[in-house]
Amino acid sequence: MEHTTVISPEQIAAQLDCCQAVARLTAQWDAQPLAFVDTYGCQQNEADSERIRGFLAKMGFGFTDSEEQARIIVINTCAIREHAEQRVFGNVGALVHVKRRHPDTLICLCGCMAQQPHVAKKIRESYRHVDLVFGPHALWKFPEMVHGLLVQRGRTFSVDDEAGSIAEGIPVVRQDRVKAWVSIMYGCNNFCSYCIVPYVRGRERSRRPEDILAEVRQLVSEGYKDITLLGQNVNSYGKDLDEPLDFSDLLEQVNAIPGDFLIRFMTSHPKDATQKLFETMARCEKVAPVLHLPFQAGNDRVLKVMNRRHTREQYLEKIKALKALIPDIVLTSDIIVGFPGETTEEFEDTLRVLEEVRFDALFTFIFSPRQGTPAAEMDDPMPREEKLANFNRLTALQDQISEEKHAAYVGKTVRCLLDGLSDDERYDLTARTPGNRLVRVVGDPAALGQFRDVRITGANKWSLFGELV
Ligand code: SAH
Ligand code: SF4
Ligand code: F3S
């Protein structure tokens, strides 16, 4: 196994000293300096942005959503599909005008895109208004890099390829008061042939259980009600730890923390989702009855070329075993349409899986070639129109299933977490069922942040509607 670097408490203390040094500089500026942190990509990136905000707050920054008002702009990027990258390049390109108007504003680009050598090169050569570029591996050194830029100017690039590290004790400013992310592991060892994540996030490494449990206890004491344990493949949690502890054991320990809260987790990989996990989910009353289990494609030949290491039959058997233990389990999945060489006939196997499993919701994507991954080099003869037609068939089928599954809620009373205020004026609040379905609710906004019974009065393919009981 490749070596995981553990960042020592002294190294983090030195970063916090850098925060203070920056705070002494910013204290001399005219007004309280503001920071704008813009996040793309998955929950892991959201969680990273919360740590970047944690550091920025220690440096004396407040927060804004305005590029014009910010003295530091941090763009935390995602490399999963080309579309995500194009949006970032467009937005970063436009910042050249902001930099012209406010030459003192620091522009930073970080996250998964920055970790790719060809992106770092492009930024170095063609986006000269970007001051700081760093990948996920260098996040823990953010204060030192900002301090360096403020005292000596120039540009900084910290994008070395690494197996990855674990750093405890980084401050966090969370975006939500009800729901929280807790990373339990970083990186991925699976190398699915289409996916960039293992190249930009390094090898799998698990946080120590005591650090995770302490963080969850703290969150529960602060009133958080919905806690999501994060990792690219949480089912392989613990494989690199000295003590014999797997993800199911960890779930059991988190479940034992006193308090009224829900535990969610993502993502799970079908090849590592075990009977033990399903039994643990069924037994632990705080673990939400929902599983996000991506299967990507329904055809065995395609799955093999994707390097997913499971067959369609194995996937279906696992779902069957899970449904036997938790009949009302809410199931969601990720699917890629148009993987290189996938024929329309093979794609139809994906539709058959949908019909058999009847997922509650899906995240569907058209294959996007990622430089450096094996799939980007594969022959891809299918015309884009045919891929799009298949994609539309897939979403039409899922819309129909989602609508039917949502309709079955109408008339029921469900204990939901009221997690937000509604932006639709016909409703007061938004809520989530234990299975994480969105409910728009009529009722007293003072109930925000509580678990309450909601009577479901209506549904469509996207969400449920209801009223507080
Ligand atoms: N670790 C998770 C998901 C990571 S990325 C897992 O293994 O399930 C989220 C989703 O993006 C993937 O499940 C996949 O469906 C999609 N995805 C990843 N790479 C892609 C690519 N090159 N083109 C299109 N979709 C992709
Ligand atoms: Fe990507 Fe596969 Fe790892 Fe998920 S398991 S992050 S799809 S390589
Ligand atoms: Fe994107 Fe990186 Fe997440 S590539 S999906 S932000 S791990």
Distance between the termini: 54 Å
Beta strands, count: 21
Low-confidence stretches: none
Could you say which small molecules are bound to this protein? Answer: S-adenosyl-L-homocysteine, iron/sulfur cluster, FE3-S4 cluster
Structural class per helix/strand content? alpha/beta
Give the overall shape.
globular
The overall pLDDT average reads 96
Q: Regarding CATH, which class of the largest domain?
A: Alpha Beta
Number of helices: 13
Q: Specify the helix fraction band.
A: 25-40%
Strand content: 15-25%
CATH architecture of the largest domain: 3-Layer(aba) Sandwich
Radius of gyration from CA coordinates = 23 Å
CATH topology label of the largest domain: Rossmann fold
Biggest beta sheet attributes: 6 strands, parallel
Give the number of domains.
4
Strand order of the largest sheet: 3-2-4-5-6-7
CATH superfamily heading of the largest domain: Methylthiotransferase, N-terminal domain
